[in-house]
Design a protein that fits this description.
The structure is a single chain. With 336 residues, the protein is an alpha+beta fold. It is built from 10 helices and 18 strands. The protein is elongated and about 70 Å long.
């Protein structure tokens, strides 16, 4: 046994330390799956017990880890999860957010685990209780072994573990919060699997209906000024406007707005052209726009690194490529 996946919960810190001391490869899920699925903990050469103890903490996971991508060939030998409550039958209740269940399902989709991979939970004796089977759903993870301060319980659980991601349980909101889900969904869609989301039909109606706009947005007609055919002149694009390109096809405007707020680059107005994989940000003046361009360099959404430039510069680049800059004009009905 070499590859051990242990949840990042504080109560499992001792388990992570034991794995490191035993020279195992320790994989820890990224908190809330924001930046990927796993981090591989890599202690420095000749690490002392004190250093290993630091590596096992949440801060150590940040400082001594390298991300593991979807294409990495990972084969997990043991899965250790936290639990709020667990029954001797192996039925488990977590904190209610579903991350342990989703992580396992994602590992199944990657081929990192199988139904034979043992799943262990470590709890206090008082957390071993009877759990009604009615509380369980098909996507819930069960456990094979329960470790308490006084007992080792072999559950003999026969209930199948999740065989992959149940996309009908995944919402667009969750897709927005967990970028790696978008990559997995794209792969499974290309493989011909049903990847219909929980609220996909409602989302499509909201997206394509001209009478419906996303929450917090206002739709209004945009009337471009008359212009001559051919390439536009540079002065037609204001210097306070920033171009955002290479947006993933399934990105929502709320995701971009959230990223802009977090980076301190929220604009006065945002023109959304998601179907064209781009957006335009309007700032109070050219200095603010230039500062935003600097702040947003290297910004990623999903697996895409966004292209960020002053819209005027982007227009000039397009002019050099054959006069396509006129497509920088917003669509007649842009989300503002």
């Amino acid at each position: 046994m070499q590859e051990v996946k242990v949840d990042p919960d504080k109560p499992l810190e001792g388990v992570r330390l034991l794995a490191l001391q035993s020279k195992k490869t320790l994989l820890v899920p990224t908190p809330r799956l924001r930046t990927g699925l796993f981090n591989r903990i890599t202690p420095p050469a000749g690490a002392t017990k004190d250093i290993l103890r630091k590596c096992a903490t949440s801060q150590g996971v940040k400082n001594y880890s390298t991300p593991v991508g979807l294409d990495a060939r990972v084969l997990v030998d043991l899965v250790v999860v936290g639990s709020v409550a667990v029954s001797e039958k192996g039925w488990r209740i977590g904190k209610g957010e579903g991350y342990a269940d989703l992580e396992y399902a994602m590992m199944m989709s990657m081929g990192a685990v199988s139904q034979a991979t043992p799943v262990v939970t470590i709890v206090h004796d008082c957390q071993v209780v009877d759990i009604p089977e009615a509380l369980l759903e098909d996507h819930d993870l069960t456990v094979d072994y329960i470790l308490t301060p006084t007992r080792v319980i072999t559950t003999g659980c026969e209930r199948p573990k999740p065989r992959g991601i149940t996309w009908s349980k995944i919402s667009y909101e969750m897709m927005g919060k967990i970028p790696i889900l978008r990559s997995l969904r794209s792969r499974e869609q290309q493989a011909g699997k049903d990847v219909t989301l929980q609220d996909e039909h409602r989302h499509l109606l909201e997206t394509h209906s001209p009478q419906t706009a996303p929450l917090g947005a206002v739709r209004r007609p945009w009337h471009p000024a008359p212009r001559e055919s051919g390439s536009m002149q540079g002065e037609e694009v204001p210097s306070d406007t920033v171009y955002i390109g290479n947006l993933p096809w399934d990105t929502r405007v709320s995701e971009l707005k959230r990223a802009l707020r977090e980076l301190g680059a929220a604009p006065l107005r945002l023109i959304w052209q998601g179907p064209r994989h781009r957006a335009f940000l309007h700032y109070p003046d050219s200095a603010s726009a230039q500062q935003a361009v600097s702040c947003l360099q290297g910004l990623c959404l999903g697996t895409n690194t966004l292209k960020v430039a002053l819209a005027r510069q982007q227009q000039r680049a397009n002019d050099l490529e054959g006069g396509r800059a006129r497509t920088l004009h917003p669509d007649p009905y842009s989300t503002i």
